[in-house]
Protein backbone atom coordinates (compact mmCIF):
# COMPACT_ATOMS: atom_id res chain seq x y z
CA UNK A 1 0.00 0.00 0.00
CA UNK A 2 1.38 3.40 -1.00
CA UNK A 3 1.89 6.25 1.45
CA UNK A 4 -1.04 8.24 0.04
CA UNK A 5 -3.33 5.19 0.37
CA UNK A 6 -2.28 4.75 4.01
CA UNK A 7 -3.06 8.40 4.70
CA UNK A 8 -6.51 8.06 3.09
CA UNK A 9 -7.31 4.93 5.10
CA UNK A 10 -6.15 6.65 8.30
CA UNK A 11 -8.37 9.67 7.58
CA UNK A 12 -11.36 7.40 6.88
CA UNK A 13 -10.82 5.53 10.17
CA UNK A 14 -10.60 8.82 12.09
CA UNK A 15 -13.82 10.09 10.45
CA UNK A 16 -15.61 6.83 11.34
CA UNK A 17 -14.45 7.03 14.96
CA UNK A 18 -15.66 10.63 15.16
CA UNK A 19 -19.07 9.59 13.82
CA UNK A 20 -19.35 6.93 16.52
CA UNK A 21 -18.35 9.46 19.18
CA UNK A 22 -20.91 12.08 18.10
CA UNK A 23 -23.71 10.80 20.39
CA UNK A 24 -21.44 11.23 23.41
CA UNK A 25 -20.69 14.87 22.66
CA UNK A 26 -22.53 17.64 24.56
CA UNK A 27 -23.80 19.04 21.25
CA UNK A 28 -25.64 15.82 20.34
CA UNK A 29 -29.39 16.42 20.41
CA UNK A 30 -32.27 14.18 19.40
CA UNK A 31 -32.72 16.22 16.22
CA UNK A 32 -29.02 15.93 15.32
CA UNK A 33 -29.15 12.17 15.87
CA UNK A 34 -32.30 11.95 13.76
CA UNK A 35 -30.58 13.74 10.87
CA UNK A 36 -27.49 11.54 11.28
CA UNK A 37 -29.73 8.46 11.26
CA UNK A 38 -31.43 9.58 8.03
CA UNK A 39 -28.09 10.35 6.35
CA UNK A 40 -26.82 6.87 7.21
CA UNK A 41 -30.00 5.20 5.91
CA UNK A 42 -30.13 7.17 2.67
CA UNK A 43 -26.41 6.61 2.18
CA UNK A 44 -27.04 2.85 2.40
CA UNK A 45 -29.96 3.13 -0.01
CA UNK A 46 -27.84 5.11 -2.49
CA UNK A 47 -24.91 2.69 -2.25
CA UNK A 48 -27.14 -0.26 -3.09
CA UNK A 49 -28.88 1.48 -6.00
CA UNK A 50 -25.49 2.64 -7.32
CA UNK A 51 -24.15 -0.92 -7.13
CA UNK A 52 -26.96 -2.07 -9.39
CA UNK A 53 -27.27 0.88 -11.80
CA UNK A 54 -23.80 2.41 -11.69
CA UNK A 55 -21.68 -0.73 -11.76
CA UNK A 56 -23.96 -3.48 -13.08
CA UNK A 57 -26.19 -1.54 -15.45
CA UNK A 58 -29.47 -2.67 -13.82
CA UNK A 59 -31.53 0.51 -13.43
CA UNK A 60 -34.20 -0.45 -10.91
CA UNK A 61 -37.29 1.60 -10.12
CA UNK A 62 -38.45 -0.91 -7.53
CA UNK A 63 -36.07 -0.77 -4.59
CA UNK A 64 -39.14 -0.01 -2.48
CA UNK A 65 -40.05 -3.68 -2.89
CA UNK A 66 -37.45 -4.62 -0.29
CA UNK A 67 -38.14 -1.59 1.92
CA UNK A 68 -41.86 -2.30 2.18
CA UNK A 69 -41.38 -6.03 2.72
CA UNK A 70 -38.82 -5.47 5.50
CA UNK A 71 -40.89 -2.73 7.13
CA UNK A 72 -43.97 -4.94 7.31
CA UNK A 73 -41.90 -7.84 8.65
CA UNK A 74 -40.74 -5.70 11.55
CA UNK A 75 -44.32 -4.60 12.23
CA UNK A 76 -45.70 -8.15 12.11
CA UNK A 77 -42.92 -9.67 14.23
CA UNK A 78 -43.14 -6.93 16.84
CA UNK A 79 -46.90 -6.34 16.99
CA UNK A 80 -48.33 -9.78 16.24
CA UNK A 81 -45.67 -12.07 17.71
CA UNK A 82 -44.01 -9.76 20.24
CA UNK A 83 -40.48 -10.53 19.05
CA UNK A 84 -37.53 -8.08 19.30
CA UNK A 85 -36.89 -5.67 16.46
CA UNK A 86 -33.67 -7.36 15.29
CA UNK A 87 -35.61 -10.57 14.58
CA UNK A 88 -37.97 -8.68 12.28
CA UNK A 89 -35.07 -6.83 10.66
CA UNK A 90 -33.14 -9.91 9.66
CA UNK A 91 -36.22 -11.91 8.75
CA UNK A 92 -37.35 -9.06 6.49
CA UNK A 93 -33.89 -8.87 4.90
CA UNK A 94 -33.89 -12.65 4.43
CA UNK A 95 -37.30 -12.59 2.75
CA UNK A 96 -36.02 -9.74 0.55
CA UNK A 97 -33.19 -12.01 -0.60
CA UNK A 98 -35.58 -14.87 -1.34
CA UNK A 99 -37.85 -12.48 -3.21
CA UNK A 100 -34.93 -11.14 -5.24
CA UNK A 101 -34.03 -14.70 -6.26
CA UNK A 102 -37.63 -15.47 -7.23
CA UNK A 103 -38.01 -12.24 -9.22
CA UNK A 104 -34.67 -12.68 -10.97
CA UNK A 105 -35.97 -15.49 -13.19
CA UNK A 106 -38.55 -13.09 -14.63
CA UNK A 107 -36.89 -9.67 -14.41
CA UNK A 108 -33.48 -10.71 -15.77
CA UNK A 109 -35.11 -11.61 -19.06
CA UNK A 110 -35.57 -7.87 -19.59
CA UNK A 111 -33.04 -5.13 -20.24
CA UNK A 112 -32.88 -1.36 -20.01
CA UNK A 113 -36.14 0.48 -19.56
CA UNK A 114 -38.11 -2.79 -19.66
CA UNK A 115 -36.27 -4.01 -16.56
CA UNK A 116 -36.80 -0.63 -14.85
CA UNK A 117 -40.53 -0.58 -15.59
CA UNK A 118 -40.95 -4.23 -14.55
CA UNK A 119 -39.40 -3.56 -11.13
CA UNK A 120 -41.69 -0.55 -10.66
CA UNK A 121 -44.78 -2.57 -11.67
CA UNK A 122 -43.77 -5.28 -9.18
CA UNK A 123 -43.65 -2.74 -6.34
CA UNK A 124 -47.05 -1.34 -7.38
CA UNK A 125 -48.49 -4.87 -7.38
CA UNK A 126 -47.18 -5.44 -3.86
CA UNK A 127 -48.72 -2.13 -2.79
CA UNK A 128 -52.13 -3.33 -4.01
CA UNK A 129 -51.70 -6.73 -2.31
CA UNK A 130 -50.82 -5.21 1.05
CA UNK A 131 -53.61 -2.62 0.75
CA UNK A 132 -56.18 -5.40 0.51
CA UNK A 133 -54.56 -7.92 2.92
CA UNK A 134 -56.49 -8.16 6.18
CA UNK A 135 -53.60 -9.76 8.09
CA UNK A 136 -51.60 -6.52 7.81
CA UNK A 137 -54.65 -4.29 8.45
CA UNK A 138 -55.05 -3.45 4.76
CA UNK A 139 -54.76 0.26 3.93
CA UNK A 140 -54.90 1.20 7.61
CA UNK A 141 -51.25 0.27 8.02
CA UNK A 142 -49.57 -1.16 11.11
CA UNK A 143 -48.09 0.39 14.22
CA UNK A 144 -44.75 -1.04 15.29
CA UNK A 145 -44.99 -1.91 18.98
CA UNK A 146 -41.66 -2.78 20.53
CA UNK A 147 -40.88 -3.40 24.19
CA UNK A 148 -38.47 -1.80 24.89
CA UNK A 149 -38.51 0.60 21.98
CA UNK A 150 -35.01 1.55 20.75
CA UNK A 151 -34.20 5.25 21.02
CA UNK A 152 -32.82 7.48 18.30
CA UNK A 153 -29.27 7.18 19.69
CA UNK A 154 -29.37 3.38 19.49
CA UNK A 155 -30.87 3.47 16.01
CA UNK A 156 -28.17 5.93 14.93
CA UNK A 157 -25.43 3.48 15.93
CA UNK A 158 -27.15 0.63 14.08
CA UNK A 159 -27.76 2.72 10.94
CA UNK A 160 -24.18 4.01 10.94
CA UNK A 161 -22.85 0.46 11.25
CA UNK A 162 -25.13 -0.63 8.40
CA UNK A 163 -23.92 2.22 6.16
CA UNK A 164 -20.27 1.42 6.86
CA UNK A 165 -20.95 -2.27 6.27
CA UNK A 166 -22.70 -1.50 2.96
CA UNK A 167 -19.75 0.64 1.85
CA UNK A 168 -17.26 -2.13 2.73
CA UNK A 169 -19.33 -4.75 0.89
CA UNK A 170 -19.55 -2.61 -2.25
CA UNK A 171 -15.84 -1.78 -2.10
CA UNK A 172 -14.74 -5.40 -1.80
CA UNK A 173 -17.21 -6.63 -4.42
CA UNK A 174 -15.88 -4.09 -6.92
CA UNK A 175 -12.27 -4.87 -6.03
CA UNK A 176 -12.83 -8.62 -6.21
CA UNK A 177 -12.30 -10.71 -9.30
CA UNK A 178 -15.98 -10.54 -10.10
CA UNK A 179 -15.84 -6.72 -10.12
CA UNK A 180 -14.28 -6.55 -13.57
CA UNK A 181 -17.02 -8.79 -14.88
CA UNK A 182 -19.67 -6.48 -13.43
CA UNK A 183 -18.15 -3.41 -15.09
CA UNK A 184 -17.78 -5.25 -18.39
CA UNK A 185 -21.40 -6.34 -18.16
CA UNK A 186 -22.49 -2.75 -17.50
CA UNK A 187 -20.67 -1.47 -20.60
CA UNK A 188 -21.76 -4.31 -22.93
CA UNK A 189 -23.32 -7.43 -21.50
CA UNK A 190 -23.24 -9.27 -24.85
CA UNK A 191 -19.49 -8.70 -25.14
CA UNK A 192 -19.03 -9.66 -21.48
CA UNK A 193 -20.99 -12.88 -22.03
CA UNK A 194 -18.87 -13.66 -25.08
CA UNK A 195 -15.78 -13.23 -22.89
CA UNK A 196 -17.04 -15.84 -20.44
CA UNK A 197 -18.85 -13.72 -17.82
CA UNK A 198 -21.87 -15.49 -16.36
CA UNK A 199 -24.37 -12.63 -16.75
CA UNK A 200 -27.18 -14.22 -14.75
CA UNK A 201 -24.98 -15.09 -11.79
CA UNK A 202 -23.37 -11.64 -11.67
CA UNK A 203 -26.76 -9.90 -11.80
CA UNK A 204 -28.20 -12.25 -9.19
CA UNK A 205 -25.31 -11.58 -6.81
CA UNK A 206 -25.86 -7.80 -6.99
CA UNK A 207 -29.65 -8.17 -6.76
CA UNK A 208 -29.36 -10.35 -3.64
CA UNK A 209 -26.88 -8.03 -1.93
CA UNK A 210 -29.03 -5.04 -2.79
CA UNK A 211 -32.18 -6.76 -1.54
CA UNK A 212 -30.65 -7.82 1.77
CA UNK A 213 -29.03 -4.49 2.65
CA UNK A 214 -31.94 -2.37 1.37
CA UNK A 215 -34.27 -4.55 3.46
CA UNK A 216 -32.26 -3.82 6.62
CA UNK A 217 -32.33 -0.14 5.69
CA UNK A 218 -36.12 -0.14 5.29
CA UNK A 219 -36.64 -1.99 8.56
CA UNK A 220 -34.57 0.56 10.47
CA UNK A 221 -36.40 3.46 8.82
CA UNK A 222 -39.82 2.18 9.87
CA UNK A 223 -38.65 1.30 13.36
CA UNK A 224 -37.67 4.96 13.66
CA UNK A 225 -40.96 6.00 12.02
CA UNK A 226 -43.09 3.86 14.33
CA UNK A 227 -45.66 2.79 11.73
CA UNK A 228 -45.93 1.65 8.13
CA UNK A 229 -48.59 2.03 5.42
CA UNK A 230 -48.75 0.35 1.99
CA UNK A 231 -48.64 3.61 0.02
CA UNK A 232 -45.43 5.10 1.45
CA UNK A 233 -43.88 1.68 2.11
CA UNK A 234 -44.02 0.60 -1.53
CA UNK A 235 -44.05 4.13 -2.99
CA UNK A 236 -41.87 5.32 -5.87
CA UNK A 237 -40.51 8.12 -3.65
CA UNK A 238 -37.87 5.69 -2.33
CA UNK A 239 -36.43 5.16 -5.79
CA UNK A 240 -36.71 8.89 -6.56
CA UNK A 241 -34.58 9.56 -3.47
CA UNK A 242 -32.01 6.92 -4.47
CA UNK A 243 -31.75 8.24 -8.03
CA UNK A 244 -31.38 11.83 -6.81
CA UNK A 245 -28.67 10.84 -4.31
CA UNK A 246 -26.64 8.92 -6.89
CA UNK A 247 -27.02 11.53 -9.64
CA UNK A 248 -26.00 14.37 -7.34
CA UNK A 249 -23.06 12.46 -5.85
CA UNK A 250 -21.93 10.75 -9.04
CA UNK A 251 -23.19 7.51 -10.54
CA UNK A 252 -20.53 4.83 -10.83
CA UNK A 253 -18.41 6.34 -8.02
CA UNK A 254 -18.04 4.59 -4.70
CA UNK A 255 -18.16 7.75 -2.55
CA UNK A 256 -20.74 9.62 -4.63
CA UNK A 257 -23.79 8.21 -2.77
CA UNK A 258 -22.31 9.40 0.55
CA UNK A 259 -22.05 13.00 -0.68
CA UNK A 260 -25.45 12.73 -2.34
CA UNK A 261 -27.10 11.40 0.84
CA UNK A 262 -25.80 14.29 2.95
CA UNK A 263 -27.05 16.83 0.40
CA UNK A 264 -30.42 15.08 0.00
CA UNK A 265 -31.17 14.91 3.73
CA UNK A 266 -30.29 18.55 4.39
CA UNK A 267 -32.24 19.68 1.32
CA UNK A 268 -35.24 17.61 2.45
CA UNK A 269 -35.06 19.15 5.91
CA UNK A 270 -34.96 22.64 4.42
CA UNK A 271 -37.71 21.96 1.87
CA UNK A 272 -40.03 20.30 4.40
CA UNK A 273 -41.65 23.70 4.93
CA UNK A 274 -42.58 23.76 1.22
CA UNK A 275 -44.53 20.52 1.07
CA UNK A 276 -46.31 21.30 -2.18
CA UNK A 277 -43.14 22.26 -4.07
CA UNK A 278 -40.38 20.17 -2.50
CA UNK A 279 -40.35 17.46 -5.20
CA UNK A 280 -40.41 20.09 -7.96
CA UNK A 281 -37.45 21.91 -6.39
CA UNK A 282 -35.52 18.66 -6.01
CA UNK A 283 -36.23 17.84 -9.65
CA UNK A 284 -34.97 21.24 -10.80
CA UNK A 285 -31.80 20.80 -8.73
CA UNK A 286 -31.23 17.34 -10.23
CA UNK A 287 -31.65 18.69 -13.78
CA UNK A 288 -29.25 21.56 -13.03
CA UNK A 289 -26.64 19.13 -11.73
CA UNK A 290 -27.04 16.85 -14.76
CA UNK A 291 -26.53 19.81 -17.09
CA UNK A 292 -23.68 21.43 -15.14
CA UNK A 293 -22.02 18.37 -13.64
CA UNK A 294 -23.01 15.39 -15.80
CA UNK A 295 -20.81 13.04 -13.76
CA UNK A 296 -22.06 14.30 -10.41
CA UNK A 297 -20.03 16.09 -7.77
CA UNK A 298 -17.63 13.27 -6.96
CA UNK A 299 -17.46 12.05 -10.56
CA UNK A 300 -16.53 15.53 -11.81
CA UNK A 301 -13.82 15.91 -9.17
CA UNK A 302 -12.36 12.52 -10.07
CA UNK A 303 -12.31 13.33 -13.79
CA UNK A 304 -10.96 16.87 -13.42
CA UNK A 305 -8.34 16.29 -10.75
CA UNK A 306 -7.79 12.52 -10.93
CA UNK A 307 -8.42 12.22 -7.18
CA UNK A 308 -10.18 9.18 -5.73
CA UNK A 309 -10.76 8.62 -2.03
CA UNK A 310 -10.68 4.86 -2.61
CA UNK A 311 -9.95 3.21 -5.94
CA UNK A 312 -11.98 0.37 -7.43
CA UNK A 313 -9.66 -0.16 -10.37
CA UNK A 314 -7.24 -2.73 -8.97
CA UNK A 315 -8.06 -5.42 -11.51
CA UNK A 316 -7.94 -2.99 -14.43
CA UNK A 317 -4.51 -1.83 -13.26
CA UNK A 318 -3.40 -5.45 -13.23
CA UNK A 319 -4.57 -5.74 -16.83
CA UNK A 320 -2.68 -2.66 -17.90
CA UNK A 321 0.48 -3.85 -16.15
CA UNK A 322 0.66 -6.89 -18.41
CA UNK A 323 -1.23 -9.53 -16.42
CA UNK A 324 -3.81 -11.75 -18.02
CA UNK A 325 -7.26 -12.44 -16.70
CA UNK A 326 -9.16 -15.64 -17.20
CA UNK A 327 -12.85 -14.70 -17.23
CA UNK A 328 -14.22 -18.22 -17.40
CA UNK A 329 -17.46 -17.66 -15.50
CA UNK A 330 -19.36 -20.02 -17.73
CA UNK A 331 -17.85 -23.06 -15.99
CA UNK A 332 -18.48 -21.71 -12.50
CA UNK A 333 -15.01 -20.32 -11.83
CA UNK A 334 -14.19 -16.84 -10.63
CA UNK A 335 -11.95 -14.39 -12.41
CA UNK A 336 -8.35 -15.51 -11.99
CA UNK A 337 -5.40 -13.22 -12.39
CA UNK A 338 -2.12 -14.67 -13.60
CA UNK A 339 1.13 -13.39 -15.09
Write a short abstract of this structure.
This protein is an all-alpha fold and 339 residues long. 70% of the residues lie in helices and 3% in strands. It has a two-stranded antiparallel sheet. It has a two-stranded antiparallel ribbon with strand order 3-4.
Describe this structure in words.
The structure is a single chain. The protein is mainly alpha-helical and 339 residues long. It has one domain: Orthogonal Bundle (ABC transporter involved in vitamin B12 uptake, BtuC), CATH 1.10.3470. It is 70% helix and 3% strand. The protein is built from 15 helices and 4 strands. The chain has helices at 3-21, 30-53, 64-80, 85-107, 112-131, 152-175, 177-187, 189-194, 199-225, 230-233, 237-249, 256-271, 278-292, 296-305, 314-320, and strands at 142-143, 227-228, 324-326, 336-338. The strands form 2 sheets. The chain has a two-stranded antiparallel sheet with strand order 1-2. α3 (64-80) packs antiparallel against α4 (85-107). The longest helix is centred in the middle third of the chain and has 27 residues, at 199-225. The radius of gyration is 20 Å and the shape is globular. The model is unreliable at 318-339 (pLDDT under 50).
Amino acid sequence: MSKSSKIRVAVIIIVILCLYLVPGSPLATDNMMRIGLLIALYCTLGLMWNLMAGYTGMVSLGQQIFIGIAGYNVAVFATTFGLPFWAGMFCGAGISVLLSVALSFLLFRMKGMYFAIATWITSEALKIIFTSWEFVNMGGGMTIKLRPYPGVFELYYIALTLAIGAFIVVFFVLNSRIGLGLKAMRDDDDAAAASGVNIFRAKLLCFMISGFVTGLCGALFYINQGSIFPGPGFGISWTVAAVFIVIIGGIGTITGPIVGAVIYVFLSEFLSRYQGYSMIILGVIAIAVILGLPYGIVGTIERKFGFEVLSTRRIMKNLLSGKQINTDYSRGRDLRVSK
